């Protein structure tokens, strides 16, 4: 399962979760495996982090990276 987490920085599994999904500077995609040691992360810059204005323009990013779920605050 691939999980997308909006993050404030590009530190992968050590990244700080962003307060707002649409304005997050990065999206961290985590492949959740059999255990924590098996998890891998890929960080993608959010090109619309400052231009978020109505609607969700992030669906193509989620689709392109195969997100199965989103975890956010």
Sum up the structure in keywords:
73 residues, 1 helix, 4 strands, globular
Question: What does this entry look like structurally?
Answer:
The protein has 1 helix and 4 strands, in the order E-E-E-H-E. Helix content is 8%, strand content 27%. A 4-stranded mixed beta sheet has the order 3-2-1-4, with no helix packed on it. The chain is mostly beta strands. The two termini are 20 Å apart. It has one helix at 59-64; strands at 2-7, 26-31, 40-45, 69-70.
Number of DSSP helices? 1
Strand residue percentage: 25-35%
Average pLDDT confidence is: 84
User: Structural class given helices, strands, pairing?
Assistant: mainly beta
Kindly report the spatial arrangement of strands forming the biggest sheet: 3-2-1-4
Q: Please give the alpha-carbon distance between the first and last residues.
A: 20 Å
Tell me the Rg in angstroms: 12 Å
Largest sheet: 4 strands, mixed
Q: What's the helical proportion of residues? A: under 10%
Assign an overall shape.
globular
- State the low-pLDDT regions, or none: none
State the total count of DSSP E strands: 4
Order of helices and strands: EEEHE
